[in-house]
Design brief:
This protein has helices at 3-20, 26-48, 76-88, 105-120, 137-149, 187-203, 214-234, 239-246, 250-264, 269-277, and strands at 64-67, 70-74, 93-97, 124-130, 152-156, 163-166, 169-173, 180-184, 205-206. The protein is an alpha+beta fold. The longest helix has 23 residues, at 26-48. The termini are far apart.
Length: 285
């Protein structure tokens, strides 16, 4: 197939998916969209490989084009460079969704000066974390600092994969280990991703500082975390996937599951799945 025709066909498929998703759950659709765009990017790269210099497909290269305004970024160095270039040119706002629980303290400290500089320049900044970050001291210190600058931070029990939107360009992961990403400038898709972020933001809770103790933070967010774990168990997700989506370790997940089993009187995981799956069984903490 001619590459130009392939790209046009691929873009039409994305447009159709966007139209069909108007009533879908934002988290679920965004994950499907990321996977779909990743497949398009890989297929487009294969179509174009004979006509594209090899260096363009190497990590750190310019990346392959999956369609108008949809670009495949291969390798961590290339992803980092593309995001840095977008941040250097930002004019209006920066939206970020950071899953997987607390981020390393060194990363947070390094980000502080960038946040201060952007806020001072009049850039709006909003960040979504998962509820589990409320138990992390480094994250609490970071959030306290950036909110004093003027940034806004909220948390959710679980949400879609990593998302960064800088003005009119969006970045999403295209594979599980996030060594591949997609940069998107196509207005329809960016608009959809912004709307998805805003819906998640509306459901999220402001990051609290009082009380500071983890025990009190648990009172605020643990019911939502446990509810998500139960739902994901019923839906058949693996322990690894559940831990990742809720931002906790697999060891912590096992502790939660053990507590849920005890509360419901389940003797094993099979019985737990049965009890959770019954329409009349409602898990209450």
């Amino acid at each position: 197939m001619d590459v130009v025709k392939y790209v046009e066909t691929a873009q039409s498929g994305v447009d159709d998916a966007l139209s069909a998703a108007s009533g879908a759950e934002p988290q679920a659709f965004l994950q499907e969209l990321a996977a779909h765009l990743g497949r398009l990017a890989q297929e487009a790269a294969q179509q174009a490989v004979l006509a594209t210099p090899a260096a363009a497909l190497e990590p750190g290269g310019d990346g392959a084009t999956a369609g108008p305004g949809v670009h495949y970024l291969h390798g961590l160095a290339r992803i980092s460079t593309a995001i840095d270039e977008a941040l250097a040119a930002v004019r209006r706002d920066i939206l970020t969704a950071q899953p997987d629980g607390a981020r390393p303290s060194a990363v947070l400290k390094e980000a502080l000066e960038s946040v201060r500089r952007h806020i001072a320049a009049g850039i709006e900044m909003r960040t979504l974390y998962q509820h589990t970050t409320r138990f992390d001291e480094a994250t609490k210190e970071y959030v306290r600092a950036v909110t004093e600058y003027g940034a806004q931070v909220r948390t959710l029990e679980e949400f879609f994969d990593r998302l960064i939107i800088v003005d009119d360009i969006a970045f999403i992961s295209a594979n599980e280990d996030r060594t591949t990403a997609i940069s998107i400038t196509e207005p329809t898709i960016v608009r959809f991703l912004r709307d998805t972020f805003d819906k998640a933001w509306d459901r999220a809770k402001p990051f609290p500082f009082v009380p500071l103790h983890a025990a009190k933070a648990a009172d605020d967010v643990m019911p939502a975390i446990r509810e998500s774990i139960c739902r994901l168990l019923v839906e058949g997700y693996s322990d690894k996937a559940i831990a990742r989506r809720t931002g906790i370790s697999e060891r912590s997940l096992q502790a939660h599951i053990a507590a849920i089993k005890q509360d419901l009187g389940a003797l094993n995981r099979l019985q737990l799945g049965y009890l959770l799956g019954r329409n009349e069984a409602t898990y209450v903490l």
